[in-house]
Amino acid sequence: MEEQPIIQVNHVSMRFNLSREKVDSIKTYVVMLLKHQLMFDEFYALRDVSFTVNKGEPFAIIGENGCGKSTLLKVISGIFAPSSGSVKVDGTIAPLIELGAGFDIDLTARENIYLNGAVLGYDTAFMDSKFQEIMDFAELWDFVDVPVKNFSSGMVARLGFAIATVVVPDVLIVDEILAVGDFMFQQKCEQKMKEMIEQGATLIFVSHSSDQVKRLCKKAIWLKHGVTQMIGDAQEVCDAYIHDMETGGHGLVQQPPQEPEEASPQDSPPPVSSKKRFPVLDLLRTLALFMVVWDHLGPFRNPDWWLGRLVENNLNQPLGITQSFGAFGVVLFFLISGYLLPLERGGRLSFAGKKLLKLYPPLLISFASFWLVQKVVGLMTGPTFWASFSPRQWMLGATLLNYPLGEPDVINGTTWFLFPTLLFYFLGWLFLPWFQKKPKLAAAGCLLVLGGGLWAAVSLPLPSVLVNVLSFGWYVSFPLFGALVYWLREKKMGFGWFLMFSGINYLLTLKGMVHFKPDYYSQSPYLISFAYAFLLFALGLALESQLPSLPLVGGISKVSYSVYLTHMTYGGLLMTLLTPFLGYTGAFVVTLALVAFVALAHYRLVERPVGRLTKQLFPNP
Amino acid sequence: MAGMECDMSELNTQLAKLKKYRTLLMRLVQRDLKVKYRRSVLGYLWSLLNPLLMMVVLSIVFSTLFRYDIPNYPIYLITGQIIFTFFSESTTMAMGAITGNASLMKKVYVPKYIFPVSRVLSSFVTLLFSLAAVVIVMIFTRVPITPALLLFPLPLLYVLLFSMGMGMILSVCAVYFRDTNHLYGVCTTAWMYLTPIFYPVSVIPDQFRPLVQLNPLYLFIDCFRQLVLYGQLPTLLNTLQSLAWSLGMLGFGLWVFKRKQANFILFI
User: Fold this and answer.
1) Which residues from B are below 8 Å from A81, CB to CB?
2) pLDDT of residue A264
3) Where exactly are the structural domains of chain A?
4) Is the ipTM of this complex over 0.95?
5) With DSSP H G I counted as helix, E B as strand and the rest as coil, what are the percentages for chain A, rounded to 5?
6) How many separate domains does chain B show?
7) Nearest chain A Cα distance for residue B30, angstroms
8) Partner residue facing B27 (CB), from A20, A23, A114
């Protein structure tokens, strides 16, 4: 019976997120989300602690302040759930961690005895029978009906101790409480504890005073910075602990063998995610996002806006940039999507699943939420612009089906670029193994499909749905350029091959544009914007090592799809609503802020959960 | 089989815990009530007087200002009002349950759901007192006493379970975002105006009528009114919808709470 274990602590680690404790308002939260590396500021109070306490064997936990003693006690008594590992306790626990926890200072001693008894799980009848005993032990008969707020701290401790020890528990946890109260009471408490041990309670005792430990306990564990230093006979552990203290505490013993990822909380870098490997792509994507948002919420809606005109006259027109950066930004997006495609791991099924889940659910939900919001706004201000679209058109818009069917865009300028992206991903799905392993075949295959499609659309009497689909085909050339750049840069394709493929690709782009969007070719210098985007992309990649990697940029890049889905919808609505009150510039600024907020909410509530689900469904090999 | 056994033993320990902490739950409810009316002369009488006085004020305002065509307006008003007041009060109180008892939770192990549940229950006790006010109004306005009245605990049970679920979710939210406290006040006000409490359902335009049916509080209030005011049994549709809402919200609340409770302690 002696060796029967009563407490088993198995590989318990306790992690606190230091910075998270500061997050208690949405504003702080948004800021922290943007600087997402702060989330990883972790602190281990306990690391891989294991030990067993046998029944009837007084056990001590020693160590200096902040070494994790109290955390360990709280884990044993069930207040904290360990971050990893497990704790098994056979029997009841009386935690004397903080005496008087659960006292309501406005209630009297009598009421508090019942309340605190209830906190420990004792019912009223039982407390009635023990009331006398408690008050006798606490020696507080004169203060029975005095509110506890008028007690001294010693009196509170006496009452607390008396209540907690009214039943002989299987495990008695005592945390440095004997320092309170006068000398006589300390003696009395120690006496009581000895009695309880004799009656079969197992004592878990925490202290940094080794005298008491030696007197009361048989075995001990010594913790330092949450790491087990020594377990064994109380005498020996105490001596080692004292020796360590005397030599200045530098005799640091072993670190736990596993968990290599954790360093001290100050200098630990955030875990590297797959996106993190391309800070330059984050930067380019952020730039692209700003360009598109600027176009859609600025000059696109109000060509006479002074700020828009200023940029237009002094930057865009001299340089020949069309659509106030809109086309520029979108082409940048295309290039990035293309650049990342050859990096996809896994098979076709997982690729298709990942891309469809990444694209569709956020799209559907953003349309649905915007439909609701504009309905509500419509009730207050009269029908909005979007009220003129029928439910069918909304559904088509939310599924991108309006493009093949040749129906109008519900939300102008937002989703059209997703359709070519989807077409490109279709090619990616078709040639996925080649994209991963055989770049030349992949490029040739894509160009063949593009050229064939273009030829068919131009010369065959195809049904209109197919022609509509193919009319978006020429945009696919842009992401294909991105993939070509990746292969060239990673030396998977020679420069000659690159030139040849990009030349053919360029000619196909030109042909597609001339055929399907003649105005892009003749009136607005769309291709010049493309050239700028391509140059900027190449420049970014070339200067990668020179560019700083800013956490804020990483954050913005992460939410870019959410911003893309919500900026034109919510942004457009807000601009319409706010301009009469704030003027165009004021509305623009406020809208930017609110769009950022909506996009963040969308990211948190839709895009990220869907992303997690996707990761679970299609884990990376 | 092993899974089943595990589930059963899990359930058993939960039930044992519930039994063990029953006293605590009662004590906490008592404490809430004591604190609520501490040092007021009329004490518990206020839970009866409050709805009565509110009813008087509102019925004067609305019967002179708007002239809704509702027979027995006072009882129409008070039935809706006590249920909604209970809902908003209990959920608001439950919202602060975790943050308000943080110091206790950090020191002793107690099942954490006890705190929001006790807040909702103490509000429920107030609701029961308020029923006396309904009875008084019923006597004064000579509402016929029908056998249907015996079913009155049913809507109260619906709203109790619904509020418990909602309260648990809110208490979790409040731990992670203290802003919830401020936001929720706005939400309940909006919710109150969207619920036919002091206006008849008929003033709502036809195209929005289905939306009203989606408002669980309206379902509960309607059920209560059918029993008390019109002496009619609730419809099957209403019963099914109400049950689905209340049990669904309770289940969802428990699920959210269970998932998040291990983390609370790190945030409070």
Assistant:
1) 262, 265
2) 37
3) 5-35+42-92+167-246, 281-617
4) no
5) 65, 10, 25
6) 1
7) 10
8) A114
